[in-house]
Amino acid sequence: MRLRGCWRTCLLLALHLVAASAQGEVFEEDLTLRPLRDGKLEARFSFTTLLKGATPRDPRSLERDDEAQHYTLFPLALGQLLREHAVTELHLTLNAGKWNYDQWGHPDEPGVGTGAELWVWMGDSVPTSVDQRWQGLRHSLAGLFCASLGHLDEQRTTSPTLTFQPEGSLPNFTHPHQLRHATLPSEHVCTENLTPFLKLLPCKSRSGIAHLLNPHKLFDADWHGLGVHVRYREQVGVEVRLAFQAVFDPVRYSHNKRRDWSLRSVFDRSIERACPVARSSKVQVELPHETTYTISPGPTDVLDNVATYTINSGHEALDIAMQWPEEGSFEYSDTSQATPLTDISVRRNLKGTGQADARLTLELTNNLPIQVSTGYLETMPWHLQFYLHTLRAHVDGAPRDDLVHILSYTPPVPHSRPALLQAVLTLPPRATLHLTMDVSKPFLRYTEHPPDAQRGWDLPSAVFVPFAFGELDTSEMTANDTSISAETHGRRASRDHRRPRRMYTPVMLVDLATPDFSMPYNVIIMSCTLIALIFGSIFNLLTRRFAVVRVDQPEVPEHEAKVTMSAVSAADKKTS
């Protein structure tokens, strides 16, 4: 009895410690579903864990052992990396596909560049430099998420501070903070990246909203990507947000080509039970502007055209469904006539047929009746070198070099550093700005080519950040501008309380001069053939015995030949 009472006391003490530690950690999860006008469905999963009262590690303390960290809900594997490399802010995204800004608008998660993107803010220090910690962080994240992040070496690393501003607070350390940014456009997200992603969640994928993360359905989407975001909120704590975003096509899944959808049809699962450690768990559905749709079951709350479903422990299995009963098969609209859903539209191309030079072209269209200023970032590996003196800007065929401001260019260093181009562009109202610049393609060593050299090299996305919008001149407004003036002012009002949102262009493929990799194969085949012929001839001469056969001797009868052979055999036995 005494032993049983001791075990009971220890168990109660352990539960008390767990409850006490959990009071400093808060976990929230939510799912946002947004029907798109082209019949597709955007789904954004967000899992946020807040470590209250925590602060990033000071880089000066890397010389000594770190303080003990006890986590209950906070992901331990990620927390150890942040403390080991003294990271203040971290953003990692792995995406596959091309985000269609004109038809889908701005995504809920801005980092939608194709491939892998990693950028961090770290405080500088004397014992261990930022570059050393950046290298260790890349390899640690590569092992944690089973991705090729180790290839984000110094040949892909830049510091574009004008485009990637910190999203949280930066502690006042002795040394200033520095930015490190790198992209790998050829990296894609797959199941081996999703598995460690789910292990960072408190409930994994067994309960809660994370139960809908079915890899068979997620990676069948038209676009999908995951993200890991860490930031420090002053006087609040350290926040880790794990996000997964995907764009599904219900019309492709439907047998009758309808855009009706449900959680069961999209994810092949429903929310069976709530995550027991989540303080808040909810599903939000943005309601379309059409009045002919139906949604079931009834939402918990509807506010600002958003239906909210709250998930709690006593909730039954939730399977949200939206239907358009008066609509037959879904008819796709003419995308060329549809109004873009973003303030600006961007198209980037690399033109030229030669393998030594090409021309980079940009088309930026201002969709608003007001002037827009946007930041422009171009990060190119040293495989493509800019001729900055050939940069030209045109609007309606007229030269407008005055629209390019604050131009900053860091030339590449072969085998060491990429090129970094930053500028501020001014877009006139409802006009298209054309930028052109000549580029050169250097010759690479044959050992520097990838295994699929004939395919070409993936070039990272360009990034645009619209940050300043002019005033609307009502005296020169047309009838079309008047019809959208309310929408324009609504957009501007919604931007007042949000930070500028980044826009990524699709990646490009460049064809560099490729050597004839079949030549070594031909040399090997020819050498082996010659060696085989020479060696075979000499080997035959050295090992083969030659005997003279006389063909002009008279034939011997068969019985005499047998007698002769018997006599020869008897003679051989006597001699032996």
Residue share in helix: 10-25%
Q: How many H/I helical runs? A: 12
Which term fits the overall shape?
Answer: globular
Biggest sheet record: 11 strands, mixed
Number of strands: 27
Low-confidence stretches: 9-22, 479-497
Main-sheet strand order equals 5-6-4-3-7-8-2-1-10-13-12
Q: Bin the strand percentage.
A: 25-35%
Radius of gyration over alpha carbons?
34 Å
Distance between the termini: 98 Å
- Determine the structural class based on helices, strands and strand pairing: alpha+beta
Mean pLDDT: 86
Descriptive account of the structure:
The structure is a single chain. This protein has about 575 residues and is an alpha+beta fold. Helices cover about 25% and strands about 30% of the residues. The chain has twelve helices and 27 strands. The chain has helices at about 1-20, 75-85, 100-105, 130-145, 190-200, 215-220, 250-255, 265, 480-485, 485-495, 520-545, 560-575, and strands spanning about 25-35, 40-50, 85-95, 115-125, 155-160, 175-185, 225-235, 235-250, 260, 280-285, 295, 300-305, 305-310, 320-325, 345-350, 355-365, 370-380, 385, 390-395, 400, 405-410, 420-425, 430-440, 455-460, 465-470, 505, 510. The strands form five sheets. The protein has an eleven-stranded mixed sheet with strand order 5-6-4-3-7-8-2-1-10-13-12, covered by helices on one side. A hairpin with a 2-residue loop joins strand 12 (about 300-305) and strand 13. It is globular, with a radius of gyration of 34 Å. It starts with a helix and ends with a helix.
